[in-house]
Specification:
It is built from 7 helices and 32 strands. The protein is mainly beta. The strands form 7 sheets. It has a 10-stranded mixed sheet with strand order 19-18-20-21-31-30-27-24-25-32, with helices on one face. Strands 8-10-13-14-15 form a 5-stranded antiparallel sheet, with helices on one face. The longest helix has 19 residues. The radius of gyration is 41 Å and the shape is elongated.
């Protein structure tokens, strides 16, 4: 018991002695914060000139701090003076390193430095020089988005751009018209990853030998407020396209040449006749319109043929881009006069390519004969022609179709002159029933054909011309070169008929 008490008292005395000898203040120096260090995954790159890197590189790094932790990094490219550092918390990224303008090769500095939790920055950091070789960008015109050989005052161009060093290395893409020395215009790049470009140009004034054009962007036809000069009217023109990257390297210049024709009329004549008489028929129709005092612009769309009697592809005389280019092209005229030798031709595209034309109040006339193999009831063209159905025949009764002969009458059903057929013996005719609301204009005196060559007088419905319910499209189902106006002074003078159909029915006027 005595020994235990002495030991306890001794421990207490020692503790009190230590407490009484302590100073209540803290003396000495705190340890200073040590700066972090920085490392790059690759700190030296040695390659020969042939194996230099592209300007798009992946770079990674890390940092260490002996008395804390890393909160972020700063990096600089080429210029490491203060103010040129950028902060990041990442430890890797893909960079497009800038090659000096006009240089094919360059050694570009990349530097990075760590920042610790006390805000201390690695004073030395880490750096590496990347030996780079610039690759020129490329420009490629899109053949399906270029003007045909000849256009009037509206035309479009499409092209694509790329760069082996990566899309972000591209600086701009430009066009020039007929002059690559002084005439380059930058086309807006609307997104960082945009590679495809489509522009449309609309002439402001076609009355002079040279003209300027307003430039529209994209398939939505957005106004860019850019005006392109130096177009030559009624002459050949060349549009040039090129692309530049950030090193000012220029792609190979691409070009497209076409003829720019002056629009002289508000009436367009479309020759869709692919027969051997196409050009003489064109002269015939042009003469008939001239007799009414109408001058016309002409587009010849008589090229192409369908496979195994099928529909022909859209004429190469038209722009391949239907919206906006072809729709807006055809809407430049107030009236369209169309003739063809088959329902299998370009008339099948009418509902798609004439939307804007009709929306703007345009009116159209079309004359096309009807052959037996074109009378299938599932043909979507019938609705456009305002035909409900063709008059049926009875094959089991050996019926083969219809026929018209010299001196047969083509009779008006609602005003207009009496007509006479002058085309010999002709089977390219087929009567039809119009859709509701359409106006029946002419019917024909016909024979019914039978197998083995038999014929009989046809007494049924014989409508061959109709004006649609909207009163903006008139179809005449015969070759007009084979008819005459019965009381005309000259055999080939159809002015009395065309005055009724074009002026009275469709409101054709000349501006």
């Amino acid at each position: 018991m005595y020994k235990k008490l002495n030991r306890s008292a001794l421990f207490t005395a020692v503790v009190l002695l230590l407490i009484s000898g302590c100073d209540t203040s803290l003396d000495g120096n705190l340890n200073e914060n040590l700066p972090p260090t920085t490392n790059l995954t690759v700190d030296n790159i040695e390659v020969d000139d042939e194996n230099r890197l592209s300007s798009r590189v992946d770079i990674s790094w890390w940092g260490d701090d002996p008395d804390g932790f890393i909160t972020g990094y700063e990096f600089a490219i080429a210029d490491t003076s203060e103010g040129n550092w950028s902060f990041t918390t990442q430890t890797d990224s893909t960079f497009i390193l800038p090659i000096s303008p006009g240089q094919e090769t360059d050694d570009v500095l990349f530097a990075v430095r760590s920042i610790d939790n006390e805000g201390a920055i690695d004073p030395g950091g880490a750096s590496v020089r990347f030996p780079l070789r610039n690759s020129a960008p490329t420009t490629e015109m899109n053949t399906l988005e270029l003007p045909p050989d000849t256009t009037y005052g509206l035309f479009s161009f499409g092209w694509s751009i790329s760069d082996p060093d990566g899309r972000p290395t591209i600086l701009r893409t430009e066009i020039a018209v007929n002059d690559t020395t002084n005439g380059w215009t930058e086309i807006p790049i609307e997104s960082e990853d945009q590679e495809n470009f489509f522009i449309s140009l609309v002439l402001q004034d076609q009355s002079q030998e040279t003209a300027s054009a307003d430039l529209y962007l994209g398939r939505s036809f957005r106004n860019s407020d850019l005006v392109i000069d130096n177009f030559r009217v009624n002459d050949d023109n060349t549009l040039y396209v090129r692309t530049l990257d950030r090193a000012r390297s220029v792609s190979e210049v691409q070009e497209h040449e076409w003829f720019l024709k002056r629009q002289t009329s508000n009436i367009l004549l479309l020759n869709d006749d692919a027969s051997s008489s196409s050009q003489s028929n064109l002269s015939f129709h042009e003469q008939q319109l001239s007799r009414l005092g109408f001058s016309v612009d002409i587009i010849d769309i008589s090229d192409g043929s369908g496979l195994s009697g099928g529909n022909v592809p859209l004429s190469s005389a038209f722009p391949r881009v239907i919206n906006p280019t072809l729709n807006r092209t055809l809407a430049q005229w107030d009236h369209i006069y169309h003739f063809s030798n088959s329902l299998n031709r370009n008339i099948n595209f009418a509902q798609e390519i004439l939307v804007r034309f009709f929306d703007q109040g345009g009116t159209m006339y079309s004359s096309i004969p009807i052959f037996r193999d074109e009378t299938r009831e599932d043909n979507p063209l019938l609705n456009f022609l305002s035909i409900s159905e063709f008059v049926p025949i009875d094959p089991e009764n050996a019926e083969r179709g219809f026929q018209i002969r010299d001196d047969f009458e083509i009779r008006p059903m609602d005003g207009g002159p009496l007509l006479t057929f002058t085309g010999g013996i002709n089977s390219a005719i087929w009567p039809f029933f119009p859709v509701g609301g359409a106006a029946e204009l002419y019917e024909a005196e016909l024979l019914k054909r039978f197998a083995g060559g038999g014929l009989s007088r046809y007494e049924g419905p014989s409508t061959i011309s109709v004006l649609n319910p909207e009163r903006n499209f008139l179809y005449f189902g015969m070759d007009m070169t084979n008819i005459t106006v019965s009381d005309a002074n000259e055999p080939d003078d159809l002015s009395g008929l065309l005055e009724e159909l074009l002026i009275n029915r469709l409101g054709f006027t000349q501006q």
